[in-house]
Write a structure and sequence with these properties.
This protein is α/β, with parallel strands linked by helices. The chain folds into three domains: 136 residues, 3-Layer(aba) Sandwich (Rossmann fold), CATH 3.40.50; 61 residues, Helicase, Ruva Protein, domain 3; 88 residues, Zinc Finger, Delta Prime, domain 3, CATH 1.20.272.10. It has a five-stranded parallel β-sheet with strand order 2-3-4-1-5, sandwiched between helices.
């Protein structure tokens, strides 16, 4: 197996357009820009770990070749979010010409939805003034936090969580290269806990590989991800549904202690499993509504155990008489 210090997220980062998974339509359009050696300012928006930064690095490598580092400035706006970043770092880089035959440099602003409004207004002017020498790639999780003047200056590409088949493909590639065996149940578990986030997938996979003896199973995945096994969550709900409230409460506490779960962690798993219960559709809707109310109460500071017991009580009361 590879050196334990190797970070798989970097080791398996896509190096070419063909390596970007799950975003075929976006890749097709961006590749056309690169082939023409001309592109507008772009805004990549979508969930974490779906390829926004990787695609930006691939664009830089394909445009500038061996000089890509000199022509590519990457800033994380969540670390450097003030107006001085735009006025100093961004402008200093933007005012010089690119090295090579491409007429512009690229500035990549990651997590730009963390920029203050003042910084975004300054960025808006900078994007206008340095269009001849610089293109901006902005990346964010929530496009609604980007002011409209910036969005109107960009071609917006909306990324989606990776589909199941692409996640399985990534797992197979890593397992082959690292000489690991991954059971089919473990693959499903990795997809479940990652939620289409490739970065989270690889981090959990690497952690499981460090403790497993060549073979990774579903229990390794759920344990390392601090997520309860769906069967155990379903068992808790079914005990409550069968009017075995004390047993359900005991199983809930044991599961939370076993996996080190908080109330917010377990309520999200309850929300997923409630749809599988054998209760009328209206009862399922009412229980989902109750999940939202209880999560809000826990966020506001209510005792999580009292709130979770209240949810189990509602599950017990929802059984059709």
């Amino acid at each position: 197996m590879a050196d334990e210090q190797t970070i798989w997220t970097e080791k398996y980062r896509p190096k070419d357009f063909s390596d970007i998974r799950g975003q075929a339509e976006i890749v097709r359009k961006v590749k056309a820009f690169v082939e023409q050696k001309n592109m507008p300012h772009v805004l990549f928006t979508g969930p974490a770990g779906v390829g926004k930064t990787s695609l930006s690095l691939v664009i830089a490598r394909r445009l500038f070749g061996e000089h890509w580092r000199e022509n590519f400035l990457e800033l994380n706006a969540s670390d450097e979010r003030g107006i001085d970043v735009v006025r100093v770092k961004v402008k200093d880089f933007a005012r010089t010409r690119a090295i090579g035959d491409v007429p512009f440099k690229i500035i990549y602003l990651d997590e730009c939805d963390a920029l203050t409004k003042d910084a975004q207004q300054a960025l808006r002017r900078t994007m206008e003034n340095y269009t001849q020498t610089t293109r901006f790639i902005l990346s964010c999780n929530y496009s609604s936090k980007i002011i409209d003047p910036i969005q109107s200056r960009c071609a917006v590409f909306r990324f989606q969580p990776l589909p199941k088949e692409d996640v399985f493909g990534i797992i197979d590639v890593i397992a082959k290269n690292e000489n690991m065996t991954v059971t089919s149940e473990a693959k499903d578990a990795l997809y479940e806990v990652s939620g289409g986030d490739c970065r989270r997938l690889e981090n959990i996979f690497q952690a499981c590989a460090a403790i497993a003896d060549g073979t990774i199973d579903a229990n390794d995945v759920f344990s390392m991800a601090s997520v309860a096994h769906p069967k155990e969550v379903k068992e808790i709900l079914e005990l409550a549904l069968g009017n075995k409230f004390v047993e359900a409460r005991s199983k809930l506490l044991d599961t939370m202690l076993k996996y080190g779960l908080s109330g917010l962690d377990i309520i999200k798993q309850f929300q997923k499993e409630l749809w599988q219960l054998n209760v009328p559709g209206r009862s399922k809707v009412n229980l989902i509504d109750k999940c939202g109310e209880i999560e809000f109460r826990m966020v506001e500071g209510s005792d999580e155990y009292v709130q979770l017991e209240a949810l189990l009580a509602h599950v017990a009361a929802s059984k059709e008489v």
